[in-house]
# Entry
Amino acid sequence: MRSVLIANPKGGAGKTTLATNLTGHFANAGQKVTLCDLDRQQSSLRWMAFRDSAMAPVNGYFAGNQMLISLPKEPDWVVLDAPAGLQGYKLADYLRLADKVIIPVVPSVFDMAATEDFLGSIRQDMRGRRNAIGIVAMRVDPRTRAAAMLEEFLKHFNLPILSYIRHTQNYVNAAARGLTVFDPPSSRHRRDVEQWEPLLQWLKD
Ligand SMILES: Nc1ncnc2c1ncn2[C@@H]1O[C@H](COP(=O)(O)OP(=O)(O)O)[C@@H](O)[C@H]1O
Ligand SMILES: [Mg+2]
# Structure
């Protein structure tokens, strides 16, 4: 079993979008995947409830406010969808469970400011395994000024941007139906799937 935590204290950063789509990727690749919802709002599990049983299967569980002692061992992958505001000892606990950590960041001044302290503390908590932390630039075209601003901001933390995920209604529409860009029909999401490639490669390394 390998585990990946998706975290950022800012609400709306794209944690659940990354978590559900990553889960969809593993499921469509024929892997056993469990989506672990750490958020009391249970958005990930709601997404799962919409999912058609004809689609590649995913498991889910709600860890709620509980301290997680252990993760299920049977699946190939466990994807942990963190709540907004996660910090302190709870964050440190979840970090111990995770083989890799993905931090989605929207390149707005507000989002970057809200993420700054978190990036500092996560670097501290993960010292010794900083190459297990990766950033995903959320809702951005890499050729824009917004992307350049984000790159400048991240230089201070020496963390890599793994993928740039564009802003598209594909994510919104898929989410509403319990789907992901990795579910069929694949022709509709080819551009989006391509954007995930470096992130997926990094996860599997
Ligand atoms: N790449 C994207 N393009 C368009 N909308 C997006 C994208 N990523 C996320 N969203 C939308 O932004 C909102 C917040 O995303 P969400 O994944 O729920 O964030 P979080 O879990 O961090 O609070 C959702 O409505 C989601 O559909
Ligand atoms: Mg969420």
